[in-house]
Amino acid sequence: MPENQELPRLDVVGRPVAAPPGVVLVLHGGRSRSRESGERKRLTYARMLPFAWTLAAAGPTVYLLRYRYRGWNAPFKDPALDADWALGEIARRHAGVPVVLVGHSMGGRAALTAGGAPNVVAVCALAPWLDDSDPVEQLAGRTVLIAHGDRERYTDPAESYAYAVRAKHVTGRTARFELPGAGHYMLLRARAWQSLVRRFVLGSLGIEPEDPVITNALRQPAPGGLRTVVPVSPR
Questions:
Q1: I want to staple 116 with a disulfide (CB 3.0 to 4.6 A). Which of 96, 123, 129, 138 is the partner?
Q2: pTM for the full model?
Q3: Calpha distance 34→179 (Å, rounded)
Q4: Nearest alpha-carbon partner for 186 in 29, 14, 41, 12
Q5: 88-104 confidence digits (pLDDT tens)
């Protein structure tokens, strides 16, 4: 039982569907170390709401996870433990329904770490905080998309590239996208971030046809498909 009896907790975004075609679990960012409660809705939580609302409007049931603590807190990896709990709870509520994980920063790390759960079919990590200690074996059989902006100041795009290279050996369906002009908080080029996530998630769940650009990146052997650029749309 968690130390905080109220957390972790799943917040439903939008109107829950009785028999959804899929479930999306959204994991927000945090800090390297912090035992502060995850009860308060901070900017890290609010940052993921546009993604959650966009996806919920398209058909799947969407949950935002409230962690017990703000921090990753290695070696405990608290958000990944909470994600494991959430995936078990989702399996209980929605037996047999496929799940896609979407995480940002620390949440991206938690999503990739927890991606081996039986009900997970795909993982989307946005500006993930990673290093060479992060495992990839759990991603076998999953579809993985990683995205990073080139104005990143808080997490290392080189680390997400190195992780994608390692993951590609475990699951051939791994792609990584680069967003020129985009930074860590996904405010710059917000529409491009949200469009990429929406197309990946809905294609992975079979709600919409797979996006050809994403599919092409997934099919390419490393290093192809791991530095696919999301172009800036002309105004």
A1: 138
A2: 0.95
A3: 30
A4: 29
A5: 999 999 999 999 999 99
